[in-house]
Design brief:
10 helices; alpha+beta; single chain; Ubiquitin-like (UB roll); binds FE2/S2 (inorganic) cluster; 2 domains
């Protein structure tokens, strides 16, 4: 039997001088659908001005993160039949400026990621040498042991949806804070045996805007749609940081 819903959707246009408001749309679900499909139907049949973001529709690209009835969700994964109520309140991700309706400006999130240089930093010379020998892909020097992979794998599952950044209470009060996933990603790279970055390359994150800013309330772990547990990465990074600092002290004392 068709189920009837009331969608109460956040509306705002940053290019117009208007206050944000909620607009109601009635929607009848004929077959089992996800929230993203319902939003597409509403846009196609009722209001072409409604803005929201999506791409893969398979919980892979991370572009459809929203707050649905107060919960952080991927709209392409959240099924209407999993909702216990017929009133569905949809809001954009908090902690990020709203551009239009449900579309937020992800720039602060991308900037935080850029800060930590989110890629494996191989030692240039070594890579070039191996390439010359045509052994680059087959060299044992560039393989990861299964055990090593297990340590970094959770953080490679992140789809960069920004839910953890949006839900973070520290980001909400301090815009300098890098946020959970940037720091967990940094741990992912320094823990990677192929990464050759030195401590001095990332030591600067040992501030209240970086490593020491986290309140450890684990909100990021709760809201992550991929169970990445960014706070675990962040805490591991703290331990690594302290270890490197201790090593630095002993090196100086010699
Ligand atoms: S549309 Fe790609 S994750 Fe939802």
């Amino acid at each position: 039997m068709a189920r009837k819903f009331l969608f109460r959707i956040f509306r705002f246009d940053s290019e117009k001088a208007e206050n944000p408001y909620f607009q109601d749309y009635y929607y009848e679900e004929e077959k089992d659908k996800v929230v993203l499909e319902a939003l597409m139907d509403i846009r196609n049949e009722q209001d072409a001005t409604l803005a929201f973001r999506y791409s893969c529709r398979e919980a892979v690209c991370g572009s459809c993160g929203l707050v649905i009835n107060g919960e952080f969700e991927l709209a392409c994964r959240k099924r209407l039949n999993s909702l216990k109520t017929e009133i569905i309140v949809i809001e954009p991700l908090p902690n990020l400026p709203v551009l239009k309706d449900l579309v937020v400006d992800m720039e602060p999130f991308w900037q935080a990621l850029e800060m930590i240089k989110p890629y494996v930093m191989a030692e240039e010379e070594a890579v070039e040498e191996e390439k010359e020998k045509s052994l680059w892909l087959s060299s044992p020097g560039y393989r990861i042991e299964e055990k090593e992979m297990e340590a970094i794998e959770p953080f490679t599952n992140c789809i960069l949806c920004g839910c953890c950044y949006s839900a973070c209470p520290v980001v909400a009060r301090d815009e300098r804070y890098l946020g959970p996933i940037a720091l967990a990603k940094l741990y992912r790279y320094i823990r990677d045996p192929r990464d050759q970055r030195r401590f001095r390359d990332w030591e600067k994150i040992g501030t209240s805007a970086g490593l020491w800013g986290c309140d450890t309330v684990f909100r990021c772990n709760e809201v992550c749609p991929r169970q990445v547990n960014p706070a675990h990465g962040l805490l591991a990074l703290r331990r690594r940081y302290l270890w490197e600092k201790i090593k630095q002290i002993f090196r100086k004392e010699k």
